Amino acid sequence: MLVQPYLFFDGRCEEAITFYRDTLGAEVTALIRFKDSPEPPRPGTMPPGCEDKVMHANLRIGETMFMASDGHCLGKPSFQGFSLSLTAADDAAAEKLFAGLADGGQVQMPMAKTFFSSRFGMVTDRFGVSWMVMAAQ
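and the corresponding structure tokens:
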């Protein structure tokens, strides 16, 4: 069994992909736009003008795959009730990743030493995705 996150950026997926590529080294392994779908959209499922938006993308960050989409393209992504946990190789890498995710976002808990990691912090990025960043022990 495989469980993977699927994030809906509601019209900001391409921007998010670029941000995660630049900030986290994400690699896009697949991307299909609504206009390239082999089936036309069902009536009422996509606002006009969203043909170039991302219908589906696969991204790899380190060893983890996640999927992303523009969803209904309404421009109001909402991510609640979860955090993505990112474990960096060391303190310096954790600090760098945290700072990148915090750029344009909001720090929930600044990076600090905890009983379970030499560096740990929580941040919500500019798209509203919650991240927990820590250094590997």
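(Above: one complete record from the training split.) The chain has a mean pLDDT of 93.
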